[in-house]
Fold this protein.
Amino acid sequence: MGSSMAVLPQLFNHISTAGTAGTAGTLLREERIMAQCIAEAYKYRGTVSPNPCVGAAVVVEGDIVALEAHQRCGSLHAERLAIGSALTRLYGMPSTSETPSNTGTLPVGSELFITLEPCSTHGRTPPCTDIIISSGVKRVYVAILDPNPRHSGGGIDILRNHGIHVSVGVMAESATTLLAPFAKGITTQTPYIFAKIAQTLDGYTTDSFGTSKWITGLPAREHVHALRHGADAILTGIGSILADDSILDTRLHTTTTPAQHRNPSVIIADTHCRTPLSSKIVQRYASQLTNGGENGGENAGENGGENGGKANADMLYILTGEPQHAPQVQKLNNLSSRISVITVATETVNNTPRLNLLHMVQTIYKLGFNNVMLEAGSTLTSAMLHENHIDAIHMFIAPKLIFGGTNALQTPQPPQGIKLNNATTLQLKHSQQIGEDALLEFNVFRVLKFYV
């Protein structure tokens, strides 16, 4: 997997190069700088939840003197890091990534670029509007407003009331894509969920003999590991665990992101708590030392995130309909502090008991996960699509025909399907060839507006 160095940038290169005000294919100066802020923020996707990914830059006399990003939940915000780093570089003031210099004034004419409206209320750190005002910056460029309705526009108003010129909307579409997980979470209390589907050209995920290794080639599978690396958690179903005995870790030999060898947490949807104690995924967590994570149990995001805050803990969560006193539940819970079995509501669909999907995704959000990757079989993936819980699809299509097997998707209303005029409409956002396979990236539906 030595090509992984080139995989991760592909996840955001096509996002951060689309201008809004320049001519076709040309970015204005402000857009180029904001694009760099967005790209910097993407490096920390998967490490900051429940906070948003935010990048910031300080520009002096046309040159970027500091480019920073929020790095993890509970650490300093991007604009504080950028201003502190700029003061250190310009004046030699003592500074570290955790305690940058927050005293001093930037040169006259300095500009600040931020991908998200600065916070204006006290949380784990003081309001970022305070340091912006005290830094002497007189022009601030903001990509999008805070999606939290309780705070949206507040930070902008404070800056403007202190005589700072604020421009909003630079690279708004790209920043909205970057912030989609946080924005969906803060407005719906459910996570942003993107599904990974790997299928043959004729739409099958396994052959007629149950074999699925491998539908796609090695480069595509490397890309999947890069997607995992940027997710807060991986959601799968018990069917996939029983059929594949997957370990669902991230295997990247080389990475361009600061979070080296990071594994997201794993969530198994398991109605009847059938996850075997001997399965690879259970043994992976049972054999590791307890690790509560850097930010376990903290809550509230950078601009008002309110979910549980365990997204950096690397846990195994099993969501089940079984009560906590059930023998299998107790056995799993007693294996390790890094394994947690949580009881959620159930329902009956087509005479089959299953987890209530709305309660399931609400539970996932309360655990502190904004950005969730769905790697599951056709049953769970189809049900999630049918009930509008999936926001995006990454579909890998292999140039193979097998003329039978397991369909990638199945009808949620057997034996009939859905009428054409009720079809779920997808928006193609990106396509590329990865090795011999094709990757199509779709938005399932737009849950966000542009906060400009």
